[in-house]
Specification:
Chain lengths: 334, 334
């Protein structure tokens, strides 16, 4: 195994977030499940945009947010994801490159528009996401840059990749290349509804050794093992011999390994403004720590810090330099 | 004079703000004067965008921000400004309409792109603006909807309209229609460099009675009267017989009338995140108060409150409902 050019490579849907504040009534009238992500057509996305309030546009995408977080911690980061050569795609490419991330994927010159996610933020800071996948549906194995995968210590994949059909093949190809190069593969379960859609396939990935590191929140983990009891789900996961992180909102997180389960508290915030990206940035801190050879609980502390930063403002990308923040908190050396 | 369908009509440049954090060094290397607005070409705007950090896109434009603020206070508001039918233009139109503002201007179907303002936010929260005017340069008298002007208690115009040549004619036409209908005309001086460019013309507007209500910050007012001494400038202004508001950042504001000068303190904020829109939202609160027949000092309090809200987050449009905020602060009745 050669030394790694990248600490973490992310593969995921490349999305522009369209964030607007809304009241709970708006969700109820439209039958939207608060806190979830649902896929919508381009026509539905236009209709929703028409009806929603004034919006802020910021680059998003779950794995992309994580990778930008890794870079903000000072990690060497790369991202693979599909945009169109339209205004939204150009903004996505600009933002991820401006964050210091290597982004080799060619923009599509025809076909569907760049993906957009209409994010409705309720007064409690919770976000409800409505995604038009657009050109993300054309991400396929041909977009997996083998050299990039081989060059990354950890390849991080989002469960949402199961939604666009060809992306699943890209996922499997990337995991194979990574393991053949002696690298690690990480997966986030993304969303409890996403787990509902692909439960058996996600279990196969976990049970079959495709995944070395797993990120899930408590809802997703309960959905994975189809149980209302978190302890039962954690016990089932523990037997799998991988490193898993289960985030539990303000109750902190559990680091689950075969050897045992450790808990790490959340970092309290003054006011939760927008929870978009909380899980993504938790993964960023954790993965950055892992890539630096830190112990799991240290990684969890970096994750909790990054999550606390991103829920303190609108948008799913860090607003402050995470390395500076972690250094100020004594979690990283000068 | 018939009763007014609108409390305030704004006429200004319709702009999408592209906001990014930056270090002071970046400004120094490029010779950018911190806190100012400079006009740049499309090519320069693309080069600057390439070099700047990850960005957030939010609708902006000085008078447009003010008008959205008036609407957030519960005022009946309208806006005239030119966009192209591109992605940025569609976002601008969506956002201003979603804020409850009547926006009758037709989008251009050809010609230059929608205006963009690259806003660099330094760690002190100060913003430095670089504007590509784009299709705003095509706003002209033909875009001034006479019925809309006649129907507004106050027509509010931004000094920046002096930059695109045809917009100046739109300004003069709107002021004439407003006065013939017995309405008031308000002007903001916009920026001290803008005052440098058009000092004599702005003085003519003030001295000739075209303007009834004037907004300026202390830098702009000193520039207008070409003096380093604010008291001298205020004394000169006081003789003109109009109602003027001079904002002085954290030192509050002066309400200048022929009868005397009153001062009103600023509303302190915990952390200044981004000063973009501070003056615009001050004007929003003041104009809304005026349109409701309130005394000048009450209007100034509403202005100070709105300014404090907008500098507490990224972007120049209010993130919270200003009517609710003012009600909670006891400045408006339930």
């Amino acid at each position: 195994m050669t030394s790694a050019r990248f600490d973490v490579l992310g593969i995921g849907n490349a999305i522009i977030d369209v964030l607007a504040r809304t009241e709970d009534d708006f969700l109820i009238k439209r039958g939207l499940a608060k806190g979830s992500m649902q896929l919508i057509s381009e026509a539905d996305s236009e209709a929703l945009y028409h009806d929603m309030g004034p919006a802020t546009l910021i680059s998003g995408g779950s794995a992309a947010n994580t990778i930008v977080g890794v870079s903000s911690f000072g990690g060497k980061a790369a991202f693979i994801g599909k945009v169109r050569n339209d205004a939204a795609g150009e903004a996505f490419a600009h933002d991820i490159r401006a964050a210091g991330v290597h982004f080799p994927t060619q923009a599509a010159t025809e076909g569907k528009a760049t993906a957009k996610c209409m994010i409705l933020i309720t007064p409690d800071g919770e976000r409800t996401m409505n995604t038009f996948l657009g050109t993300c549906q054309d991400l396929g194995p041909q977009d997996v840059d083998a050299d990039c995968v081989k060059a990354a210590q950890i390849t991080y994949l989002e469960g949402y990749l199961w939604d666009p059909p060809a992306a699943k093949q890209a996922f499997v190809k990337a995991a194979d290349i990574a393991h053949q190069a002696g690298r690690k593969v990480a997966l986030t379960l993304s969303d409890s509804f996403c787990v509902d859609r692909y439960r058996d396939e996600f279990l196969d990935l976990i049970n079959g050794g495709t995944v070395d590191i797993l990120f899930a929140n408590m809802h997703e983990l309960r959905s994975l093992y189809a149980t209302a009891d978190l302890d039962t789900a954690v016990a089932a996961l523990r037997r799998k011999g991988l490193l898993a992180v289960v985030t539990c909102s303000e109750q902190g997180a559990l680091v689950v390994e075969e050897a045992g389960v450790q808990s790490c508290p959340a970092v309290p915030v003054e006011r939760v403004v927008d929870t978009t990206g909380a899980g993504d940035l938790y993964a960023a801190g954790f993965l950055f720590g892992l890539s630096q050879g830190r112990a799991a609980l240290d990684c969890a502390r970096l994750g909790a810090l990054a999550a606390s930063e991103v829920i303190s403002h609108i948008g799913a990308r860090p607003d402050r330099n995470l390395r500076d923040l972690a250094t100020a908190e004594g979690l990283l050396g000068h």
